[in-house]
Design brief:
The structure holds 3 protein chains of 3 kinds. Chain A is mainly alpha-helical. Chain A contains 8 helices and no strands. Chain A has one domain. Chain A starts with 12 loop residues before the first helix and ends with a helix. By secondary structure, chain B is mainly alpha-helical. Chain B starts with 9 loop residues before the first helix and ends with a helix. The chains are: A mainly alpha, B mainly alpha, C mainly alpha. Chains A and C meet through helix 3, helix 4, helix 7 and helix 8 of A and helix 1 of C.
């Protein structure tokens, strides 16, 4: 008898992990364990960062106390851009490989990114009032952030307008990708436009290098933002899974376990 | 209503589709005038709203004319795929085996000929109304000639994404205006530079680069968008 | 002009926006659980009426 022995395919743990993440109940339970820790680290970093920035760091030589808004405005701006990039990358993966969990993660990122953009704009506006005397200035960063907010709102709006969730996610992912391709072009054209119309480029931070006592709280807040994003993103993704799989068995199981 | 040969070479299909779209557009000749009238009305609102002071109008002329062009384009974009989507012709295109990218490109070209070219041709009149210095007129026409196709190309992606929505047209503006920002900045910079007797050819070069990039990339994205909308 | 009210206002708005963003999914989860319970009740009722 001739039996050809099939060799067992070696199970790559990374590939296994990625496959498991694609299963909604597995994703739901696995990420559920992380979220409290992510919030904890976020809280600790924020308290530490704000203490360093609001209490220990000195006021700026030129701008006075108002520079303390920087510890909110700049990390929020970085987060708004980081989240859009993450959205674009995840959206690309979701579109090309049609992975449902990626679609959900991409769509869950949009409101978070929009929130950070709004914080950037309001903090920047309030920083501008004592610094430049007016609540709004069409400087390069604020104008770029405003356009970025419109891009976010477009993705959110498109996703919410289409009834079928997977089709809606695919359309919004494509839009996010198109926006991401245009984002550097928009950013540089706005930056250039700003110098064109105002002569010297006005920047809230100026050209001088930043002192260490100011740099540390800035970096700590930046890292804190990433933990916020991770915690909020996973929370939103889990809730979306519950909503979409309302009639499925695994959701009922989880509800029973909770009671 | 399908004029596309079921088989046949790609270029024949392309030109047949182009001819068909233009024919359909010309059957409703009055509708061709809508973007033209819109432009005239919007431009005339500015002196009415701001005051007819010639220096002020001249200073805001490039921006105002370009913004009016943006608005006119967005309004006319919805027609790009809608009638074909609604009567099922678009699905026939997808099934036909011809690449949807080239089908999209043919329709975009037809759209620009019908909606974008009138903007370019009308611009001298608009420049006159906004008191744009005569030396800058040539640059204005060039920026519009290079820029309005880019508007149609990038806009077609937005149309592809919103075509299945009932109120797609309203969402469309939100989607495409952020993408239009660089074109607006560069085009108006070119015209303003020429008004100030400063070098402006680098801006035209940027617009040309933008046009070439859009022609190669946008139809592909528009086709992907249409496939999602049809799914 | 004191800068303090601006700093307070900026951080206050930041906290409010980010707090709302963090809490919104939890609010939604509660309404989803309510919907699921209602769904289960409807299904059980239809099972009872069929048996």
């Amino acid at each position: 008898m001739n039996t050809t022995k099939k060799s067992k395919p070696r199970k790559n743990p990374v590939v296994m992990f990625i496959h498991k993440m694609g299963s909604p109940p597995w994703f739901y339970n696995f990420t559920g364990k992380f979220i409290p820790w992510l919030w904890l680290i976020f809280g600790a970093l924020t308290i530490w960062g704000l203490y360093l920035g609001l209490v220990k760091a000195p006021a700026d030589y030129q701008q006075g106390e108002s520079v303390r808004i920087m510890y909110l405005h700049v990390p929020a701006a970085w987060m708004s851009l980081l989240i859009y990039s993450a959205m674009a990358v995840m959206g690309f993966i979701a579109l090309v490989w049609r992975i449902r969990i990626m679609e959900i993660l991409t769509m869950a990122s949009a409101p978070i990114g929009a929130a950070f953009t709004i914080v950037t704009l309001t903090a920047g506006s309030l920083w501008g009032r004592p610094t430049w005397g007016t609540y709004w200035v069409w400087d390069a960063r604020l104008t770029s952030e405003l356009v970025l907010l419109f891009l976010y709102l477009g993705v959110i709006g498109l996703y919410n307008s289409i009834d079928e969730p997977r089709k809606a996610a695919r359309a919004a992912c494509l839009l996010a990708l198109v926006g991401a391709v245009n984002l550097p072009i928009i950013h540089y054209s706005v930056k250039w436009w700003n110098t064109l119309h105002q002569g010297s480029s006005i920047s809230l931070l100026g050209g001088s290098s930043i002192d260490a006592s100011m740099l540390w709280p800035l970096l700590i807040m930046a890292v804190a933002g990433k933990f916020y994003y991770a915690a909020n993103l996973l929370t939103r993704a889990r809730v979306t899974l519950l909503e979409q799989d309302m009639r499925k068995g695994w959701v009922r199981e989880i509800l029973k376990e909770k009671n | 209503m399908n004029a596309i040969p079921a088989s046949g070479s790609l270029s024949r299909a392309f030109f047949a589709l182009l001819r068909r779209d233009l024919l359909l557009a010309f059957r409703r000749r009055t509708e061709l005038l809508f973007p033209v009238i819109f432009l005239l009305v919007v431009i005339s609102l500015f002196p009415l709203g701001i005051g007819p002071g010639p220096q002020l109008l001249a200073r805001i002329a490039p921006g105002v004319i370009w913004i009016a062009a943006l608005l006119a384009t967005v309004i006319s974009l919805d027609a790009l795929f809608r009638s074909d989507f609604e009567d099922g012709t678009l699905e026939q295109f997808v099934i036909s085996g011809h690449p949807l990218t080239l089908i999209a490109l043919a329709k975009i070209i037809a759209h620009w000929l019908v909606a974008g070219l009138p903007i370019v041709l009308l611009s001298p009149l608009l420049a006159l109304w906004m008191n744009l210095p005569m030396e800058s007129l040539g640059v204005l026409v060039l920026t519009l000639a290079l820029g309005t196709p880019i508007l149609s190309l990038i806009g077609s992606i937005g149309v592809g994404l919103t075509i299945s929505l009932k109120k797609g047209g309203q969402l469309l503006s939100l989607l495409v205006f952020p993408l239009y920002v660089p074109i607006l900045i560069i085009a108006t910079a070119a015209v303003m530079a020429s008004s100030d007797s400063l070098p402006y050819t680098q801006f035209l070069g940027l617009l040309l680069a933008g046009l070439i990039t859009s022609v190669t990339l946008a139809p592909f994205a528009a086709a992907a968008a249409l496939k999602i909308s049809l799914s | 002009m004191s800068h303090a009210p601006f700093i307070w206002a900026a951080y206050l708005i930041g906290v409010v926006v980010l707090l709302w963003c963090a809490v919104a999914p939890l609010v939604k989860r509660r309404s989803i659980t309510r919907d699921i319970r209602r769904l289960i009740q409807i299904e059980e009722r239809s099972v009872d009426s069929n048996t």
